[in-house]
Specification:
about 110 residues; alpha+beta; Ribosomal Protein S5, domain 2; 4-stranded mixed β-sheet; 3 helices; about 35% helix; RNA-binding
Length: about 110
RNA sequence: GGAGUAAAUUGUUUGGUCGCGUGCUUAGGCAUGAGGAAAGUCCGUGCUCCAUAGAGCAAGAUGCUGGAUAACACCCAGUGGGGGCGACCCUAAGGAAAGUGCAACAGAAAGAAACCGCCAGAUUAUCUGGUAAGGAUGGAAAGGUGAGGUAAGAGCUCACCAGCAUUUAGGCGACUAAAUGGCUAUGUAAACCCCAUCUGGAGCAAGACCAAAAGGGAACUAAAAAAGGCAGCUGCUCGUUGCUGUUCCAAAGGUAGGUCGCAAGAACCUAUUGGCAACAAUAGGUCUAGAUAGAUGACCAUAUAAACAGAACACGGCUUAUAGAUUUACUCUAUAC
RNA sequence: GGAGAAGUACCCAAGUGGCUGAAGGGUCCGCUCUCGAAAAGCGGUAGGUCGUUCACGCGGCGCGAGGGUUCAAAUCCCUCCUUCUCCG
């Protein structure tokens, strides 16, 4: 995943939190905001309260993997921030994939 | 074979499809990419800034001896004490006769002790003197056991044991052994303290350089010197550094952000030599992560099972977590011979 | 990544070696007041857990967890756990 498709600055994260819409389901929270660019960008925030460093790394890598495989289905011109909830450390990769697709569907971010 | 002690190693393998960080590149690719604890941040160093890192006090650390080290609370070799049949393990282990404090309750008394008792004398609801053998309290009661001795007793005397001091011998030393002496004033220093040795403070979010936006900045003479005030250097004192009012001008400063710090090092491997060892010296060889919302993953196949866990300046230790497998040395014990 | 603070009944908390299971509030229970409640006032041998008991009661353990020093630890020392704060 190229760096231009990722949110990297603390300022940009804060802009998405304050000005964006948010959606949630049992496993995830999603913040969305228009970014006036040609492509969509994404970021992940995991609190230190979830597991230890190994668990957090595994969750982050799985979310990146799901996003990479479904990248082409997502509408252009938005910033997305995924925030996993505490129970994500117990679910499998397959369950995480369906949860992410579900939240993208209810937020109306999938292309037709 | 069983039970155990000590030390060490390893801690997923191979293949396929898609994907990530860094470096190189002829732009297709090639090379390389987490740990024994990367963890906790408990110690010690390097490194950076603060004044060149200064003086005194305060505060803190260490605490048997010797060695080793860049340094340490770690490590090695020993000493004393404790535990285990043993291999072996544990040990904050200086000073209580420098001084102060504390030892609740109980008990006569918690440090140079007469409540009861025992003995002697006077007197008779008791008083005076001697006495630490016995009672009672307590975690602890004034060296222990036995014998002599005595009015009753007592290291008062003697034997053995424990403890103290001196001398001699051995050892670099902690200390050990023997002899002699006087017979002895509890515990607590992870209470204050004393003694010896050591420590300036902060920390890579240190700090250096470039530098948007926003915002006003610099020079000068009088006050001047001195003193005072404010700020920085350390918790305080000393000491030390900078600033303090009027006139001119478009530079200075360092926030967001970026670059560096940032990986060839007290490095690792092998051999030899010195040393009981920790370790040191020499020679040869190797280059081995460097991110900045933070790189190792997903799926499939395979092997019987695979834990704890993820670098953020680096290194030496300590502590804590850890499934399974393997190796070496040693101890006790059953059976057999 | 680095620096620091705290942890005591259900909640807020005092206690810095000894008669403290632990002061004091809130809470809970009972009573007064009221038609009834709330508020207010008065009282309480209540309070976690384990064992024993019909119950009352009695005993053990318990101040984040585990060790150590001491005759004696919530308090002193060491290790670990959890929570919170600050530093660009």
């Amino acid at each position: 995943m190229d760096k231009k498709y990722r949110i990297r600055k603390n300022l940009e994260f804060k802009r998405v939190y304050s000005g964006g819409k948010n959606y949630w389901n049992r496993n995830l929270t999603l913040y969305i905001k228009k970014n006036n660019l040609d492509e969509s960008r994404f970021g992940i925030t995991i609190t230190k309260k979830i597991g230890n460093a190994v668990v957090r790394n595994r969750i982050r890598r799985r979310i990146k993997e799901v996003y990479r495989l479904n990248f082409h289905k997502i509408k252009d011109g938005y910033d997305l921030v995924f925030i996993p909830k505490k129970n994500v450390q117990e679910i499998s990769y397959k369950q995480l994939e369906s949860a992410m697709l579900h939240i993208l569907k209810i937020s109306n971010m999938l292309k037709d």
